[in-house]
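User: Last request for today: this protein with flavin mononucleotide, please.
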Amino acid sequence: MDLYPLIKPVVMRFDPETGHRFAIAALRCGLVPRPPQVRETVLETRVFGVDFPNPVGLAAGFDKDAEVVDAMLGQGFGYVEVGSVTPRPQPGNDKPRLFRLVEDRAVINRMGFNNKGVPAMAERLARRKAKGGVVGVNLGKNKDTERAVDDYVIGARALAPYADYLAVNVSSPNTPGLRALQSRAPLVEILGGVREALVEIKAKGERCPPLLLKIAPDLTDADLADIAAVALGADLGVADGETGVDGLIVTNTTWSREGLKSPHKSQQGGMSGAPLFKSSTEVLRKIYRLTEGRLPLVGVGGISTGRDAYLKIRAGASLVQLYSAMVYDGPGVGARVAAELAECLKADGFVHVAEAVGVDA
Ligand SMILES: Cc1cc2nc3c(=O)[nH]c(=O)nc-3n(C[C@H](O)[C@H](O)[C@H](O)COP(=O)(O)O)c2cc1C
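Assistant: Here's the final one, the structure of the complex with flavin mononucleotide:
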């Protein structure tokens, strides 16, 4: 039974950041009951060489410091993406920096990569490694680092041993200049640097996770074409049959405030949740076409039902993620979305989720 409707009125009384800390503390202490596990063969999938029990993941930003990975896997998410993590710990922006837009089922945040840093994350992930489950690590850069590539390389080297995939995040709106790194030349520099680090790791016979890139929804068609070209390997000197990255995460939060009603709509920061669904799915569809289905895509933005997840998959996503829906529906939303997604797939005659990827694109 989902107890969240009972405690939701209490959680919603807290300011959002206190609510988040409360949720993390409750999850850490095992106080959040686990929903029945969703085990459906239709949901099992292998993407960039990793086996996922279901394609519905927890998006980056909820568990920035890898504090509740196992609790969230236990909530029914098929995988958990931790971070964004920066090489050095940093406090993030001044509070308040997180806002619920209840009327819109949306969230605005300007957290600014508050996190405990790469060494602390490596220690946490090392401690839980034997427990298994799919864990992605989302890499960011410190606010005061000038050569961005250095930070992503530090993160990749230190966390590769514990990550089922690494995601280079150049799309958060709350670190000055970060989104500019999505243009062609800086992207080539960053991905080139991280790829080189991963090649060295592989040459030593060590674990070398797939590399993903997370992008923003607020990009022009020309930006998207550049990103797709680099992702497929342009300017990176990749060997025949190789690509620049192993997948793209589409998308991060948006600058847009279109259609919002809530009094918080003029807060600065990135907006996520239901109003992001349409634009992020449109970007997903465009990227799927631009990359000709050659790269696995992770669809994120505004998912709160199995049908939302299904539409992202049909638009080209091999995996999906969510965060904001948890603010309104509680941590059990992962299991519910996965179960509803299984129903949508079966109703349309799909035997495996992979068969539905991109059918609308
Ligand atoms: C409070 C908050 C913090 C976030 N922090 C990060 C982050 O550190 N790194 C990142 O790549 N995305 C971050 N995100 C973006 C989410 O991972 C996701 O891309 C976005 O919220 C859209 O999904 P949603 O509509 O399901 O929330 C954050 C989102 C929220 C709401």
